[in-house]
Specification:
Length: 740
């Protein structure tokens, strides 16, 4: 049983394979935190681990006990205003103006499995025995309000998922001004905070900073997306922790909108992590009998370094967050016409690309932006989801059938949440956009954000899409989203609900995803947001793969894919081989290096294959054959980062993916700049079986696992003699197979 409750001491012990999480009901009936970290043997009581520091200059809860102050006790779900001076997990404004609450333990239940979250994506248990859930009810008598804290232990995955639900049982209106999903207090602050930050085209760079007194945080205020600025994830690692060893705690929010993830270090060096919907510009009116569900946070503790943490996220998110038939199916090798044609195509051109693609071994053709309305540039027609017959005289159905006849599946691009100023939809429904009265709505990429907080807007887009999906053989959808929210407001909501718009919008997006994925279960969905602005677990629930970045240059992709892999599995990262000079950075890299980067993801192409030389086509054929042969390994293997582009001089990146049975592996080493008369180099691998004998393609000898994981592959003399291994932008892939 992974969840224990000790009645006498009122302690809860949540235990996964290698993790313990312990908290207790305090004397004042609030919850206090005791321990989170490496697994402890379950014992009758952990009360001797509970710490309370006596500090003179603070306020106390009980009149006759000046030592009991919430300020000096580690809290489990901290509240505001009753002796804890740190930032709370929630704050509730009452009709009389008070923001003071006192939620006390009111009972709990423990049950097998996991409950679905209302309207929100979340991890799930396929069988009840995979997970155990603890539900704790906290009650405030004065308001007659309840907070239900849910903790689900995925024992084998080694993860704990948490969320909170706020319920107003009383008669008065309550206003949530802060409603975080989870909070946890650590004993000390001797940590480095890791987060994934960047911008368009350079998403999810790994940032490391030492915790300092005060608040350090990452967030999004962009409304439509978790954003490229910061990913909804942070980790705390001990200073000595690296990719392969040491302790780290990860916190990943299953949400695609405005979030906040922060660490507050208090004067006694306690580090408080809080994560959830961004309280900035958020407020939720909770009328009598209404409830508010927060998104889920997934806690992962590992003492096996950053790779250990990432591997837990990878396996949990790949198999118990992603859902639907494409979750476990091998994903097709696709070609997307965006960088090949941009808006400039017609049916003939598309068919030509598809015909050559088929010869090369590609399985799915994806028609990107530009197929509808008058969409010949980015200035028009979003919202008018009707085919442009000048470009595609046989419609989407006609084109899709022709592509199918060539032996390829057909996929289509949509940007469902947007409307161009220049569109029939906007002319008809100018009130359907996110806006505030009497203020000019700003355009972004010449478009407005549709007000997805309104059901009729979501319904309209749903029916427009169903019209196409229901009449054409479409196997894949790329769901794009290309602007953030400004002038946030909805004409449909009263003044006191305007701060709910951003969250209601995301609920609308999830609702549309839910309906479309249930109605068209065979379609493979890929999410996208101007590249990787919505690479978050919320999206992964509906769409098992995400367009990682608009930057397709192989060298730039190393940092992006390396950072992304901190949380997200290879099976979620779309990666395409594109033309050179690269369209984003103008860099020229070899076909090999471009493919070597893209193999470590969901592999595809995005260039005009009709313009390629015979020699290039031969290379592509071989690349596709190689990927197909090994795609089970790339898509489902255990991934280890080996050398980081963010460390040392960043000149070398390497990684390896190993099959579950450890009999197959693919490692790759990438070098950015060549060095004259370079030092000796070796590649030390991970994840193999010590006693297995491996053959590496192209190397005329065998290696044992322990040799490869300790001595490594000596790159100079053994492997690469005669090859230009020291040039700029070179890469070498090593395919390992078990040899009996
Ligand atoms: C942004 C996406 O990231 C690109 O891949 C492409 O689909 C364009 N939008 C189309 O407008």
């Amino acid at each position: 049983m992974p969840i224990f409750f000790n009645k006498k001491t009122r302690e809860f012990h949540l235990q996964a394979k290698n993790v313990s999480y312990i908290f207790t009901v305090l004397e004042n009936n609030q919850l206090g935190h005791i321990y989170y970290g490496r697994k402890l043997t379950h014992r009758k009581s952990f009360s001797h681990l509970y710490t309370i520091q006596k500090k003179t200059y603070t306020a106390a809860v009980f009149d006759d006990d000046l030592t009991f102050s919430l300020d000096t006790i580690k809290q489990e779900f901290p509240s505001y205003g009753t002796t804890d001076f740190r930032e709370p997990a929630f704050q509730i404004l009452q009709e009389n103006g008070s923001r003071i609450t006192q939620f006390q333990y009111n009972g709990h239940r423990i049950f097998p499995g996991k409950i679905k979250l209302d309207g929100l994506p979340a991890t799930y248990a396929e069988q009840e025995r995979e997970a155990t859930t603890l539900e704790i009810s906290l009650h405030d008598h004065l308001m007659d309000a309840e907070i239900i804290l849910q903790y689900t232990v995925f024992e084998q995955f080694n993860a704990i998922a948490r969320n909170a639900k706020y319920i107003n049982h009383g008669k008065e209106n309550l206003i949530l001004t802060r409603a975080m999903s989870a909070s946890v207090d650590f004993f000390d602050a001797d940590f480095e905070m890791i987060h994934l930050s960047g911008s368009w085209g350079r998403e999810r760079y790994v940032i490391t900073r030492k915790l300092a007194p005060g608040i350090q945080s990452i967030s999004s205020t962009r409304g439509t997306a978790s954003g490229t600025g910061h990913n909804p994830f942070l980790a705390l690692k001990r200073p000595g922790t690296n990719e392969h060893q040491g302790e780290v705690y990860g916190f990943s929010l299953v949400y695609s909108g405005n979030f906040l993830a922060q660490v507050e270090v208090d004067p006694y060096d306690v580090a408080r992590v809080s994560i959830g919907i961004n309280p900035f510009d958020f407020q939720w009116l909770l009328e009598s009998k209404q409830s508010f569900q927060t998104p889920e946070v997934v806690f992962v503790y590992s003492d096996q370094g950053m790779n250990g943490m990432s591997q837990v996220y990878h396996s949990l998110y790949r198999t118990r967050l992603a859902k639907g038939i494409w979750r476990d199916k091998e994903r097709p090798v696709l070609i997307n016409n965006w960088e090949a044609t941009y808006f400039n195509f017609n049916e003939e051109k598309i068919i030509e690309i598809a015909r050559v693609s088929k010869e090369l071994g590609i399985e799915l053709f994806v028609l990107d932006d530009g197929w509808f309305g008058q969409r010949n540039n980015a200035k028009t027609s979003l919202g008018d989801w009707v085919v442009n017959k000048q470009k595609l005289p046989n419609g989407i159905a006609g084109l899709a059938k022709k592509i199918n006849q060539l032996g390829l599946y057909f996929g289509l691009w949509f940007e469902p949440e947007m409307v161009s100023k220049n569109s029939l939809l906007y002319k008809k429904h100018p009130d359907w956009i996110i806006q505030v009265p009497n203020r000019k709505p700003s355009q972004g990429r010449n478009q407005y954000v549709l007000d997805f907080s309104r059901k009729e807007v979501v319904d309209y887009i749903y029916y427009s899409m169903v019209k196409i999906l229901g009449t054409a053989p479409i196997s894949y959808i790329k769901w794009d989203m290309n602007r953030y929210m400004t002038e946030i407001g909805s004409v449909n909501l009263p003044a006191n609900r305007q701060r709910e718009v951003a969250h209601r919008y995301i609920l609308g997006v999830y609702n549309l995803y839910e309906r479309l994925t249930s109605e068209f279960p065979d379609i493979l969905f890929e999410s996208c947001a101007g590249g990787g602005a919505r690479f978050d677990p919320g999206m992964l629930y509906y769409a098992p793969q995400t367009w990682t970045s608009d930057t397709t240059d192989a060298i730039e992709r190393l940092k992006i894919q390396y950072g992304t892999s901190m949380v997200y599995p290879l099976s979620s990262m779309s990666a395409h081989v594109t033309a050179v000079p690269n369209h984003q950075v103008g860099r020229i890299t070899s076909m090999e290096t471009r493919a070597n980067a893209a193999y470590f993801g969901i592999f595809g192409y995005e260039l005009d294959v009709t313009k390629m030389s015979l020699e290039e086509k031969e290379k592509i054929k071989k690349q596709i054959a190689f990927y197909k042969e090994n795609r089970g390994l790339f898509q489902k293997g255990t991934f280890f980062r080996l050398q980081s582009p963010f460390e040392k001089d960043g000149n070398v990146t390497s990684w390896i993916v190993v099959s579950e049975d450890q009999k197959e592996a693919a490692a790759c080493r990438y070098q950015i700049l060549g060095k004259p008369n370079a030092r000796y180099e070796r590649l030390v691998l991970k994840g193999l079986r010590k006693d297995y004998k491996y053959k590496i393609e192209g190397i005329p000898c065998f290696f044992y696992g322990d040799e490869l994981m300790n001595a490594g592959i000596y790159l100079d003399n053994v492997v690469l003699a005669g090859k230009l291994q020291y040039c700029d932008f070179t890469s070498q892939i090593f395919k390992l197979s078990y040899f009996e």
